[in-house]
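seq:
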Amino acid sequence: MTKPFIGGCACGAIRFETSSAPLVESHCQCRDCQKRSGTGHGSYLVFPRRADVTITGEAKEWRVADDNGNEKVHAFCPTCGTPVYLTFVAKPEPIAVHATSLDDPSQFNPQLITYGIRGHAWDIMDSSLQKFERMPPG
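struct:
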């Protein structure tokens, strides 16, 4: 059994929990993740089914299209502004939570890097991770 993944925003108004295993754990260096995080990348755990993640509290959402025109729906706390999770309009089942929103961020075990083409020399990533120029297929 997987240790539950539990977390939430900085002020505690939004909380989430799941016992599902992540499909993938990754760093993303796309410009949207850079702007949203205020640094060189975002880090995520992607779970297979939104329905298997219990979320309490009311998030605000905003949408942005990726390079392929697919809409991503970003959810954040309206009180403290912490980004908590995102979903994908074209693929409504998966949900990605921000690694740093975990109560125990040591549970995050990155496997790969997406949008490496947009990475910055000052944002040093683990060179042993598989790196994709953009989003990998699938």
